[in-house]
Amino acid sequence: MIRWITVVLVILLLWLQWQLWGELAKVNALNDRLTEQLETNTELKDLNDALFAEVQDLREGLEAIEERARSELGLIGEGESFYLIVDPNQLNEGASEAIRQSPSTQLEATPETKSASSSEQAPSVTPKPNEP
Asked: At 42, is the secondary structure helix, strand, or coil?
């Protein structure tokens, strides 16, 4: 009789150990997922903070609006001049010919262009309005 009780208790102990170690593996997996989720939440919170700061800046300041207009839309302010420096080596044949023959601009080589071409660097060209 005692032998049967011992066998049953050993089997019960083995079953409990198996359950315990199985649950510990699940706990470790959940801890790993929790760590990943916390890192993701931190990244998203930083992104949200940056977006909130940008929204506040756009609501309160005209400098941010002007900066975005300059970078994204090509805004040129009143009293400012726009100079486009073109590398003729990067233009295709039709585009560079169109720039040379444009009636609204006349290409003028700057002193930097002359020194740059002698040192085999890409020359810069600045448009100059035609004079009457």
From this structure: helix
